[in-house]
Design a protein that fits this description.
single chain, alpha/beta, eight-stranded mixed sheet, two-stranded antiparallel sheet, about 45% helix
């Protein structure tokens, strides 16, 4: 196998069961050892027996937690670095070209060998693709890591900083640095590509290294940094925490599974309607849809017991995919005039609101009184999907005459999709269906 990179640092005591180290790692070393990843929407249906197990296993194995890098942020970091290189080269006292917050990276740990000697002997004979993790030695909290050459580190936080520097490094290497449309010497006459390269090669990143954290634990760290400390796409949050069962977040887990089912199942009228990870084609975001469903899993709500039933492989939760598919199928059949047409395949092309945030938000709220009423007279566990759709249609048809007023682009609720507007539409629907007195 190839060479070993040695990294020295300190172990830090935090509220974790696994070791965390801090270290200063120079740019060439960090660039060579980490790979860039991004989370992608999973395409399997969690409520249908899996035919191609290997494909699903591959999707789950390669399921990361990072968002895609943003070109504008990378470009801003690129420009920032150039400005600060110019400042330090010109000996200006306002040169502050630093990244004081840590780049957080994660390394797998080797648990198989008792001594470093055994580890190194195995590394020498191991195949290149046979990565067995890093080895670390601890001397009174001074840590030395031995990391096989290759892109085995995952960036938990700091992708944009490193990507900005890599872009600048590559452009300097190819004599192609640009600031907008200007060449390097037009903006910074004293700088050369070689000079920029020298500064970048010497740059050290302040790094926090998570040792032996699995992807779920890495995702939790990522979420803590990005959702508690700075704003980020909420759909990404729900996708991360909805992908693994966790006793403290089993409601998110179940909501995410339902969203995947409705978006991926061939028999779902909502197939392809959800913007998984918050972007791409679709009419409403994953974050909105998951949050709307979550309201029914709260204490005293209609499905309060379902998340734990699902987590414990019970039977009660199995009504949910059937109910949701029947409910939205009934909605489509009753209000078909306002359902997206084939050529209205994006939210911009689709003029009505039935399948946008306002309409969907009101319809999901409406599930509560409809479900409570239906379960009094029907066994919703054993009822067929067809019969359930018929029952739901008989309820929704009471509001069919108000379809234009409720769901068209000219109607009273065509607007921004705010929670207030969703609630107003829900109230009017509930009145029309007889769940609230007029």
């Amino acid at each position: 196998m190839s060479n070993i990179t040695k990294i020295k640092g300190l172990l830090v005591n935090q509220l974790t069961s696994k070791p965390i180290a801090i270290s200063a790692i120079d740019f060439p070393t960090l660039r060579s050892m980490v790979k860039f990843t991004s989370r992608e929407a999973q395409n399997y249906d969690p409520f249908v027996p899996i035919k191609d197990v290997s494909q699903v296993e591959k999707e789950v194995k390669n399921s990361y937690y990072q968002r895609l890098t943003n070109d504008k942020r990378v470009s801003n970091i690129y420009k920032f670095l150039l400005k600060e290189i110019s400042n330090i080269y010109s000996s200006k006292t306002n040169a502050l070209g630093s990244f004081p917050t840590s780049v957080i990276i994660s390394l797998d740990l080797n648990q198989e060998f008792d001594t470093k000697k055994e580890y190194l002997e195995f590394i020498e004979t191991a195949k290149k693709e046979e990565y067995i993790g890093a080895y670390y030695e601890n001397f009174e909290n001074n840590v030395e890591l031995s990391v096989p050459d290759g892109k085995y580190g995952l960036i938990v936080d700091g992708q944009h900083r490193l990507m900005g520097m890599i872009k600048l490094y590559n452009d300097a290497l190819n004599n192609s640095i640009k600031i907008g449309r200007k060449a390097l010497t037009d903006e910074y006459p004293k700088l050369t590509n070689d000079l920029v390269l020298d500064y970048i090669k010497q740059f050290e990143f302040n790094c926090t290294i998570l040792l032996g954290f699995d992807k779920w634990e890495q995702g939790k760290v990522f979420a803590d940094v990005n959702f508690n400390q700075k704003p980020v796409n909420k759909s990404l949050y729900y996708d991360i925490f909805g992908s693994y069962p966790d006793p403290n977040k089993n409601d998110i887990f179940l909501s995410h599974m339902l969203a995947m089912h409705l978006n991926n199942n061939e028999d779902s009228v909502l197939k392809g309607f959800i913007k998984m990870l918050g972007s791409g084609k679709g009419y409403f975001s994953q974050a909105f849809f998951v949050e709307a469903i979550l309201s029914h899993f709260r204490p005293k709500s209609i499905w309060a017991s379902m998340p734990m039933d699902y987590l414990n492989d019970g039977d009660d939760y199995k009504i949910l995919p059937k109910f949701f598919k029947s409910y939205f199928k009934a909605t489509k059949e009753v209000f078909n005039e306002f359902w997206p047409k084939e050529d209205e395949d994006t939210s911009r092309k689709y003029p009505n609101i039935l399948c946008k945030t306002t309409g969907m938000g009101a319809l999901i709220k409406l599930i509560d009184p409809i479900y409570r009423k239906l379960k009094i007279n029907a066994d919703l566990k054993t009822i067929s999907s067809g019969d359930l759709t018929t029952l739901l249609k008989s309820e929704l048809e009471k509001a069919e005459s108000k379809g234009k007023e409720f769901f068209s682009k000219e109607g009273d609720f065509s607007g921004s999709g705010s929670l207030g507007l969703q609630n107003k539409l829900y109230i009017e629907l509930a009145k029309e269906l007889g769940y609230i007195k007029k």
